[in-house]
Amino acid sequence: MTLHENAAHVLKEWAAPADLPEQDRLRLAFLDHLAGHPDGMWKACADGHITASALVVDPDGGRVLLTLHKKIRRWLQTGGHCEPDDASLPASALREATEESGITGLTLLSGGPVRLDRHLTPCAWHLDVQYAALAPAGATEAISEESLDLRWFPYARVPEVADESVVRLLEETLRRL
Questions:
Q1: pTM
Q2: What residues have CB less than 8 Å from 156, skipping those under 6 apart?
Q3: How far is it, in rounded angstroms, from Cα 126 to Cα 147?
Q4: Which of 124, 126, 142, 173 is the most core-located residue (most Cβ within 10 A)?
Q5: Which residues are bridge partners to 55 per DSSP?
């Protein structure tokens, strides 16, 4: 199965929360994008592309790890572009989270994606499939070259530092924990 096929499968199988109808509309829009763009997984697709991200969570510590993105200069969850070697969309999200957090042993929260988000970036529209990654006990982060900073924030502080999309991702993650 190609990554394109896997992404379509993930999106077809994912059930958006019943109380969030806009999430199902995004799911259908992402599927339409993939159906119309054989290159819709890749950064080279100028009409936008599927990306994968993961909010790194330490449930025992009641905190999340955010990265101060080098280009966007905002506190965000880890994530970004899919790569040809990624076996699946969840694998892409986990790879990005591991690379950007420096934490080994992350595991994705079961149940598939937590939510979807569509946002404009300097390269194109990102059709972001968002997961949550659980940090192992005693995890130590290490800043990557893609970040200006990397920091743990208590759940309650996230609205003070991050944009609404990160806040919504945290809210949905907490509903599933």
A1: 0.96
A2: none
A3: 18
A4: 173
A5: 132
pLDDT digits (tens, 9 = 90+) for 126-146: 999 999 999 999 999 999 988
Instruction: Give Rg (Cα) of the chain.
Output: 15
CA nearest 148: which of 68, 72, 75?
Answer: 68
Taking the C-alpha atoms of residue 110 and residue 96, their distance in angstroms, rounded to an integer, is 17
Q: pLDDT tens for residues 35-62?
A: 999 999 999 999 999 999 999 999 999 9
Q: Look-up: residue for tokens 């968002």?
A: 130
Q: What φ, ψ does residue 63 adopt, rounded to 5°?
A: -145, 165
Reading the block at residue 20, the tokens are 């969030």
Half-sphere exposure of 68 (CA within 13 A, CB side): 9
Alpha carbons 165 and 162: distance in angstroms, whole number:
8
Query: How many angstroms separate the Cα of 151 from the Cα of each of 64, 75, 110?
Result: 8, 9, 24
Closest CA to 112 of 96, 95, 92, 132: 132
